[in-house]
Amino acid sequence: MRRNHLRAEYRAPTVSPLPRGADMVRAMIDTPHIALPPHDWPAFPPGLVWLVGAGPGEPGLLTLEALHALQQADVIVHDALVNTRILDWRRPGTRLEYAGKRGGKPSAKQRDISLRLIELSRQGQRVLRLKGGDPFVFGRGGEEAQTLVRAGVPFRVTPGITAGIGGLAHAGIPVTHRDVNHTVTFLTGHDQTGLTPTEINWEALAKGSPVIVMYMAIKHLPRIADELMAAGRNAAESVAIVSNATLPQMRVLETTLGAAAVDAERHGMEAPAIVCLGSVVEMRKSIDWLGQLRGEPPRDLDPLQRGGAAEAS
Ligand code: SAH
């Protein structure tokens, strides 16, 4: 139903913001092909770099502002995690540049991407830098923005739905629930060198955060799980691993902290994946809405009341 609704949006083009002079000619050639609701959309002048979050994967989770930028851009510099179906929504004639980059690669490549953004801006292009999820959440958007500031390049930022929140929502896991947690911590399992970040205070993390949402954690899961257990977290605590969240090939593995690394390997859980530790994972037993829409009944209407967290092993 939703897909049909999206398709229905391919109709009479609108141009925004109102073009003037030479831009008028360009705008008439570059008419966007998906209508956006009338709104005072931000301008995308030549030379501007627009850092935009594309969300976790499902194209419908793109923001309207991101779609607006997509339809105005001359060139889109995109990451590996950006769904190509989203790129299909660009206007005809917009060039694509792949800045493929996965966690753990040397940071020199990041420098190349930032320099390329500066170069394209200086050529007078309207540059869309499209990143998976939110550009400022483990997405190096902050570094790119700093490089642009230093180079005197004008830019703007559009946030996106981050995988560690929106991806878990698709798996029926709320990152906060009043019965479980008043804090949540986001963690990356990789630093610039590709290793588990050394500055993490595991003791403080284990004690201070009932729910821990981990990005890029599959590779180092054995080490991460060991650190958390050594710092006092219970091996029986619930863990969910959600790969390709929000996409048709999404997979969710429910396990425990003690078994997570072995289970991830055994079930072939691959990146991109989010690992969530904490009792909110139990909530999936009642609010796995995707499962329920497919006709699977809830497994437990009130998991925590029944001691679900303790039973999780
Ligand atoms: N800026 C992104 C994160 C980039 S780091 C964001 O806000 O979501 C890349 C990591 O994000 C992946 O290794 C994985 O941990 C996570 N990720 C991104 N998309 C994902 C998806 N569709 N499903 C599960 N995890 C995802």
TrEMBL record:
Q: In which pathway does it act?
A: Porphyrin-containing compound metabolism; siroheme biosynthesis; precorrin-2 from uroporphyrinogen III: step 1/1; Cofactor biosynthesis; adenosylcobalamin biosynthesis; precorrin-2 from uroporphyrinogen III: step 1/1
Tell me the GO molecular function terms: uroporphyrin-III C-methyltransferase activity
Alphabetically list the UniProt keywords. Answer: Cobalamin biosynthesis, Methyltransferase, Porphyrin biosynthesis, S-adenosyl-L-methionine, Transferase
Q: Which residues form the Tetrapyrrole methylase domain?
A: 49-260
Which residues does UniProt assign to the signal peptide? none
Q: What Pfam families does the annotation carry? A: TP_methylase (PF00590)
- Gene3D superfamilies recorded: Cobalt-precorrin-4 Transmethylase, Domain 1, Methyltransferase, Cobalt-precorrin-4 Transmethylase, Domain 2
GO terms, biological process: cobalamin biosynthetic process; methylation; siroheme biosynthetic process
Q: Which residues cross the membrane?
A: none
Its EC number is 2.1.1.107
Query: Which PANTHER family does this chain map to?
Result: S-ADENOSYL-L-METHIONINE-DEPENDENT UROPORPHYRINOGEN III METHYLTRANSFERASE, CHLOROPLASTIC, SIROHEME SYNTHASE-RELATED
Instruction: Enumerate the NCBIfam families for this protein.
Output: cobA_cysG_Cterm, PRK06136.1
Protein family according to the UniProt entry = Belongs to the precorrin methyltransferase family.
Q: What protein is this chain from? A: uroporphyrinogen-III C-methyltransferase
Which species is listed as the source? Answer: Tropicimonas isoalkanivorans
